[in-house]
Structures are given as structure tokens and as C-alpha cells.
Design brief:
Layout lengths: L5 E4 L3 E3 L12 E11 L5 E14 L5 H15 L12 H11 L2 E3 L2 E3 L2 H7 L5 H8 L7 E3 L8 H14 L2
Parallel strand pairs: 3-5, 6-7
Antiparallel strand pairs: 1-4, 2-7, 3-4
Helix pairs in contact: 3-5
Length: 166
């Protein structure tokens, strides 16, 4: 099944388990995030959905060509002044996953800034919420922290790297 496999991994994704192996039984796969954030009411909630910081397609994938076509179509018709940044990324994958049920890889997760802050500091409600979701141990972690963010965000990424030996 590996013939012609292409894998995309975002630059801010860290490998924390170098012994882990990608799925070899499917033509298409995406990372699955467990995004932890505070609700408007102040409670913590975990949202599980596909993300595009880790994805793979074999030559046999019917999905890649369709995603290219659909993304180009959306961008061509979108009003640049009013388009959401993730419209052809996580938002599109979430909508399509509701219909197609893609192969999602929970070991290739994404970490919200609130959860990352607790992982490099003291565990708190975001960590408790994540743990209640009963997730598999992470092999790859997308930090969702471009280095163009605040100095504090850059420091958190550095602390995470220091703790996990990456």
C-alpha cells in the first residue's frame, strides 16, 4: 500500500515517539486533534476532529485529487476580505469527515495554546479535560504555535522542546 505515498507534516509538528509508525493499511489519513478550550460559559471542553498538520495519501487515494479540486474552487470563489483562514484546512476536513469518515490518526495530534501552557507549566483544568477524553499517547504533536506569535508562545514551544528532548 506504500507505493507512491506522500505525507505532509507541518513545520511546527514535533515527533515525540520516534518508534511510532504511520498507518500502512489505508490510502488516505489525517491527524486527529483533541482541541481543548474554555467555552463561553467558562467550562473546559475537548473537541475531536481531523486536522491538516499531518496527512498522507497513496497513489491510490481518491481523496487527494478531490481535495485539490475543491480547495481551488473554494478559493477562486471566496471573497479574500471575508474568508476564514482555515476554510480549506481543518474546517473543510471536518465537514467532509462528517460525510466520508476519513481514517483519523489520534497519535498525530494538535495541542491548543491553553493545553500547551499547562503541559510546560502546572497541570490544570485544560490537562484534566484532555485526560478525560481518554486519548492514545501522542507520537506527533502539532503545537499550533507559529513562531510569529507572541514571545510567550515562542517560550512555551522552547519549554516543550526542552522537556521532550526534541
Amino acid at each position: 500500500m506504500r507505493g507512491g505515498l506522500v505525507v505532509w507534516i507541518d513545520a511546527d509538528t514535533l515527533v515525540v515517539d520516534p518508534t511510532w509508525h504511520m498507518p500502512d493499511w489505508t490510502h488516505t489519513f489525517f491527524g486527529e486533534e483533541c482541541w481543548v478550550q474554555r467555552t463561553a460559559e467558562g467550562a473546559w471542553r475537548a473537541f475531536q476532529s481531523p486536522h491538516n498538520a499531518f496527512m498522507g495519501f497513496t497513489a491510490a487515494s481518491p481523496v487527494l485529487g478531490f481535495l485539490v479540486y475543491l480547495s481551488e474552487s473554494i478559493i477562486e470563489r471566496a471573497d479574500a476580505a471575508h474568508v476564514a483562514p482555515q476554510i480549506v484546512g481543518p474546517k473543510l476536513l471536518k465537514a467532509l469527515n462528517n460525510l466520508a469518515h476519513f481514517t483519523l490518526v489520534p497519535e498525530a495530534g494538535a495541542v491548543s495554546p491553553e493545553l500547551l501552557a499547562e503541559w510546560v507549566g502546572e497541570a490544570g483544568p485544560a490537562t484534566a479535560c484532555y485526560e478525560q477524553a481518554g486519548r492514545a499517547p501522542l507520537a506527533l504533536v502539532n503545537l499550533c504555535s507559529p513562531l510569529t506569535q507572541s514571545e510567550e508562545a515562542v517560550q512555551r514551544v522552547g519549554q516543550f522542546l526542552a522537556r521532550h528532548g526534541a
